[in-house]
Amino acid sequence: MAVLDRTTTGVAVSLVGLRRTYGSLNALDGLTLEIEPGEMVVLLGPSGCGKTTALRILAGLDTADEGEVRVGGEDITRVPANKRDMGMVFQAYSLFPHMTVRDNVAFGLRLRGQDRGRRLTRAREMLDLVGLSAFEDRYANQLSGGQQQRVALARALAVEPAVLLLDEPLSALDAKVRVQLREEIRRVQLDVGTTTLFVTHDQEEALAVADRVGVMNAGRLDQIAPPTELYARPATRFVAEFVGLSNRLRAEVHEGRATVLGSPLRLLDGSVEAGAGQALVRPEAVHIAESSEPNARVVSVGFLGPFSRVHCRLDDGQLVVAQIPSAEAVRLRPEAGVRVEVDTDAVLVVSD
């Protein structure tokens, strides 16, 4: 489990041995997940991997065929959704069009019987938290998509839920707004300290906001780890290929070491034990230099702002992509001879 370096007020969440089938489809195949108090865990994976099913079972909107759901040590597996003390934010903003922003945020408190003064005070506190105090008298159709999603987040937090659930909350927004709002969500979550489960198919989004990322594959959790560990030390081929870009380079494994482009490297857990294989190498771990003894030629250079991706063809025909600072890439031209080496301490080697 990750060790959080902040004081939290959230509760622990446990999903234990969850199984859920829809006909012949195994949406969840024995999923077990532990979330620490105040932690934000992001479930990442392609469509149909089971991540949303897990969230819906935690919310009480779906029922597991087997397994348990525990919040704060209490078994809530059979507790109905309206008794689970969860705050939810979906892809669709789901704001009431006939209510002002303030009344939308206060709606859950009204259902809980809070008096009007308390409702309005709490709604204003939450709008201030998400930076929308000046918009409290507006209606949903007077707000941008990003502003509406901020209101939805404020509404979910207003009732002080034990757990916050975010189901693809940013996927309907354009790229720039997504980046801004994911940072806002993370800031608010850290401020409030609510235990949070966030579901997305966007790897950049997951790596940017999570304490830990869980990569799901066919109803199972392939790996769960802090973002930096998940990226640098993938536990399976699926994780390595789904999260980020990976070159596939010929490797020879012998006595616990892999030789890749002439460099001996340590093996990550899950690698083949001996013989030929393919090393999965991140573009950032590929070093390129102009050399009088080249082993590759530049195919193309793609400018991506502060860094560039350089595509090269090795003398043995393999293609490799390196990610280097653009200030270095400007010197490279197609067909230029370069020396390509792997600059990392360990790699995952999979079978051909």
Protein described:
Helix content is about 25%, strand content about 35%. With about 350 residues, it is of the alpha+beta class. It has 2 domains: about 15-235, 3-Layer(aba) Sandwich (Rossmann fold), CATH 3.40.50; about 245-350, OB fold (Dihydrolipoamide Acetyltransferase, E2P). A 6-stranded mixed sheet has the order 6-7-8-3-9-10, sandwiched between helices. The longest helix is centred in the middle third of the chain and has 18 residues, at about 175-190. The chain is globular and about 80 Å long.
Shape category: globular
Determine the number of helices (DSSP H or I, runs of at least 4 residues). Answer: 9
Mean pLDDT: 91
Number of E strands = 20
Which spans have pLDDT < 50 for at least 5 consecutive residues? 1-8
Highlighted features:
352 residues; alpha+beta; Rossmann fold; OB fold (Dihydrolipoamide Acetyltransferase, E2P); 2 domains; six-stranded mixed sheet; five-stranded mixed beta barrel; disordered N terminus
Chart the SSEs and their pairings:
Elements: E1 13-22, E2 25-35, E3 40-44, H1 51-59, E4 66-71, E5 74-75, E6 86-89, H2 101-111, H3 116-129, H4 145-158, E7 163-167, H5 175-192, E8 195-200, H6 203-209, E9 212-217, E10 220-225, H7 227-232, H8 237-242, E11 247-254, E12 257-260, E13 263-267, E14 275-281, E15 286-290, E16 296-304, E17 307-314, E18 319-325, H9 326-329, E19 337-342, E20 346-350
Parallel strand pairs: 3-8, 3-9, 6-7, 7-8, 13-20
Antiparallel strand pairs: 1-2, 1-4, 4-5, 9-10, 11-12, 11-14, 12-13, 14-20, 15-19, 16-17, 16-19, 17-18
Helix pairs in contact: 2-3, 2-4, 3-4, 4-5
